[in-house]
Amino acid sequence: VELGGTTWALAIAHDNPLNIVARTRIDTTTPDETIAKAFAWLDTQNFDALGVFHIPIFETHTESLAHMPSYIGIASFGPVDLNPASPTYGYITTTPKPHWANTSSCCLRYIVFHYSIILDIVGVFKAKYTGVPINFETDVNAPALFEAAFGGHGPDVSSVCYITVGTGIGVGVCIDGKPVHGRMHPEAGHMFVPLAPADIAANFQGLCPFHSTCAEGMAAAGAIAARTRIDRTGLHEIPDTDPVWDIVAHYLALVCVNLTLTVSPHVIVLGGGVSKRQGLLGKIHTKVSKPLCPFIYSTSNKLAGL
């Protein structure tokens, strides 16, 4: 289950992660509505495990063999608590996503934490699928893990950074085949980077509610929309030749440079809606090459990895 800020993606795989036999997408609205729709779809699917689930105010039920999965993987937008020893493990915490923080619900579990109300997303799934193992990750660490294991980058590639650029900028980091966890999870989309000359000239202040001019505040969909005075739902109407894409490439290239110099991944993968823009990857690659070429070159004399 991928909990995206815009949509949830649900998929069922048999035997291995590449053998997907069913999938669907659900718009991310309120927690109650979105999770209810997700469970309604899952209830129509067939699985191959047996378990028991309990929903408050209802009786405990034994699910039939056909309606319990063997394992559940949840990849969520964040910030989230990934520490299994934490009392708030499995929670979506201080996200700026509307409706998903600073709200309440009679159907889902919330707790007050540092004056914010945070959602126990893993607890919701445990309540329905009692006894089923659940793995919880960020929605960027999970694809980084996938790219390392199944991305076709070669047998020697075990360290990958995955960058998604859309409503926000998220960065997942996989080192030696394992996701990076520490005090929290990587939030490298909020790294501070030098401002583009065009933004300095225009006095563009960025849109991140926490840091204003971090990479996310300067290059995510909202910032692009603000510069071009186009609603973010209409970004596809901006021509490929618009100067805004050079500005976006400036920030995304610097994110790649900083990740390369600090994490040293074998591969950096860019995803998300903004990254699909025709010609943007080429602009990023050109801007990455100049600061990195004195340090990192492949044997083929080309900058490797991006």
CATH superfamily of the largest domain: ATPase, nucleotide binding domain
| Gross morphology | globular
Q: How many domain units?
A: 2
DSSP helix count?
8
Helix content: 25-40%
* Main beta-sheet annotation: 5 strands, mixed
What's the count of strands?
14
GO molecular function, one term: metal ion binding
Keywords: Magnesium, Metal-binding, Zinc
Enzyme class: transferase
Cofactor: Mg(2+)
Characterise the protein shown here.
By secondary structure, the protein is α+β, with helices and mostly antiparallel strands. It has two domains: 137 residues, Nucleotidyltransferase, domain 5 (2-Layer Sandwich), CATH 3.30.420.40; 164 residues, ATPase, nucleotide binding domain (Nucleotidyltransferase, domain 5), CATH 3.30.420. The chain is 26% helix and 21% strand. A hairpin with a 6-residue loop joins strand 2 and strand 3. Helix 7 packs across helix 8. About 11% of the residues have low confidence. Its EC number is 2.7.1.4. It is an enzyme of class 2 (transferase). Pfam families: ROK (PF00480). InterPro entries: ATPase_NBD, Carb_Metab_Reg_Kinase/Isom, ROK, ROK_cs.
